[in-house]
Amino acid sequence: MQELLECTEFSLEKVEFIGNSAGTGARMMLVSKSAREYSQKIVKKVRYYELAIDPQFAMEYAKSMHLPYKDLEKFPITKELLQRLGRHLLSSRETDKVKRLAR
Fold first, then answer.
1. What are the DSSP calls for 40-54, one per residue?
2. Contact 95, 40 (CB under 8 A)
3. Angle in degrees, CA 92, 10, 87, rounded to 5
4. Rounded CA gap, 41 and 46, in Å?
5. Cα-Cα-Cα-Cα dihedral sign, residues 34, 36, 40, 45
6. How far apart (Å, rounded) are the C-alpha atoms in residues 70 and 89?
7. One digit per residue, pLDDT tens: the chain, 103 residues?
8. DSSP letter, residue 14
9. Angle 92-96-100 (CA atoms, 0-180°, nearest 5)?
10. Where do the structural domains in the chain lie, given as residue ranges?
């Protein structure tokens, strides 16, 4: 579980749009015996982890719902991007004050 929480942010350069991969994969399974055989090999290697029942994940997920994240040190790429865009980064004390005023 800890390894999942440690990869909280990644570079946008690593993201590649691939379109409707679910639909493409479904069509491949329908028309290709070799694709079905390959998918069976993958199925044997995949691990399933139920995140919904893990309290540590649930807490981290809930904290991450606020954007930007309360602790921008966990999101260095986002922090650097905000600084380049000239956005003022609030300290945790300033963030708490804004939350109190918003109530």
1. HHHHHH-----GGG-
2. no
3. 40
4. 9
5. positive
6. 11
7. 455 445 567 777 877 888 899 999 999 999 999 999 999 999 999 988 888 888 888 888 877 776 555 677 877 887 787 777 776 555 566 666 656 665 5
8. G
9. 170
10. 1-65, 67-103
Q: How far apart are CA 25 and CA 3, in angstroms?
A: 28
Residue 78 amino acid letter: T
Cα distance between residue 93 and residue 87, in whole Å: 17
Distance CA 49, CA 64 (A): 20
Contact criterion met (CB below 8 Å) for 63 and 69 = yes
pTM exceeds 0.70 for this model: no
